[in-house]
Amino acid sequence: MAGRSFQHLLSFLVLLLLCAKPGLGKVTGCIERERQALLHFRRGLVDRYGLLSSWGDDNRDCCQWRGVQCSNQSGHIIMLHLPAPPNEDYSQDVIYQSLRGEISPSLLELDHLTHLDLSYNDFEGRHIPPFLGSLSRMQYLNLSHANFAQTVPTQLGNLSNLLSLDLSDNYLLNSGNLEWLSRLSSLRHLDLSSVNLSEAIHWSQAINKLPSLIHLDLQHCYLPPIPPLTIPSLSHGNSSVPLVFLDLSGNYLTSSIYPWLLNFSTTLLHLDLSFNGLNGSIPEYAFGNMSSLEYLDLHSSELDDEIPDTIGDMGSLAYLDISENQLWGSIPDTVGKMVLLSHLDLSLNQLQGSIPDTVGNMVSLKKLSLSENHLQGTQLQSFNIDSYKGNPALCGLPLLKKCFEDKIKQDSPTHNIEDKIQQDGNDMWFYVSVALGFIVGFWGVCGTLLLNNSWRYAYFQFLNKIKDWLYVIIAINMARLQRSLQS
How many CB atoms lie within 10 A of CB 198? Predict the structure, then answer.
């Protein structure tokens, strides 16, 4: 009995060691129920380019199919990554090898799915299936540029584990109410670019309810203006959203956006408000406290006031574009404090006065555009002519127009006398060098022949040999010519 008990104990220990061995519990092959779901999903699509050719009975393991990834532990499908690849046959216009058709509800069988990417396919103006909101484990959803239309289903707000949502470039898609976003408490990346949000009046309040949001792209969304506040120090919702990237370009926003931006003054690195109707001046409180901001684009935003001195307080800026507005007045000297700035574009405004000397302190500046203004005086010569064109009163290199001071200096008698003296000096040294060269060359040869008898004898003997050789050559050639003429 004792021996049998010992054998049982030993067998149990061996089994325990085998189970603890790494990789022993690894599941191979996919789950049949999920495999059938994928096949059903494929039947709803038109695969013109054979992207799903690996999906079939020839390969029973669906975890090996293109775009499919399974969990090593459970075998469940966790990723369906099927963005349409670009067609390499087209060199200029990018054409994608898109799947067409509709998304089958069979995807609901993939209840462990965390990643779904169907971007750049063509779903022919269909609506986004509301049942996608039931895939509760979803963390990454990309349906961008996929020709979806109609209204974004509010059921997407049920994806409480979602980290990234991209519905951009579905030009027929709209959403009249963004309140469903407030339930996505884990969302870090949101891109709704080119989705029609013209009726989303309270869009800013919905954004304020996303406590984890870092990246927000709402360009060309027809966003309506935020209702204005009477006290600039207030912010809509007092949000603690840690936004780092914010693109609101190409909308209908006005200056009422500035107080809302204060919510992100300590976190923003990238801010694009171009192609809006901001109007008026740039408030000192709007950007002066954005100590971390590295990228600011305000071009084509209908700004029509002076550039505030506080613009120099944004010491972290590397990119600043406020071109194509109606800004007037002079360029403030404080721009020179932005020593990290590598791109500065103030073109197509109505700026006057001279270019501040402090611009020379901007050691990182690689791109400067001050063209099409009313600037005057001289400019930095370290940039090309395109940086300054369209300023009739600017002068000096690299421009062709000379400055008044240079003309006076050039036309003054003193300047002419100095030039004449310099020219005469140059002529004198030329003649001196020619004379010295003649003296050295002539006497170097002739002096040697006069003083050395053997060299003189050899020299004249050499000349006689040359004379005899030339005579013989000429005589022979003349004889040949006479014979050829006689024949």
Answer: 14
Distance CA 378, CA 330 (A): 14
C-beta contacts of 309-313 below 8 A and 24+ residues apart = 309/333, 309/334, 310/284, 310/334, 311/282, 311/287, 311/335, 311/338, 312/336, 312/337, 312/338, 313/288, 313/337
Residue 95, domain member (yes or no): no
Q: Which of the listed residues 411, 431, 461 is the one where a domain comes to its end?
A: 411
C-alpha angle 387/393/398, rounded to 5°? Answer: 40
CATH number of the domain that 344 lies in? 3.80.10.10
Domain of 434, in residue numbers: 416-473
Helices 413-451 and 404-411 pack at an angle, to 10 degrees, of 60
Predicted local confidence at residue 487, as pLDDT: 66
Tell me how far apart the alpha carbons of residues 49 and 90 are, in angstroms, rounded to a whole number. 14
- Do 382 and 361 meet the contact criterion of CB atoms below 8 Å apart? no
d(CA 180, CA 153): 9
As a whole number of angstroms, the distance between CA 226 and CA 235 comes to 11
Residue 441 above 70 pLDDT?
no
Task: Name the residue among 285, 178, 188 with its Cα closest to residue 221.
Answer: 178
Please give the mean pLDDT across all residues of the chain.
85
Structure pTM?
Answer: 0.77
Q: Is the pLDDT reported for residue 163 higher than 90? A: yes
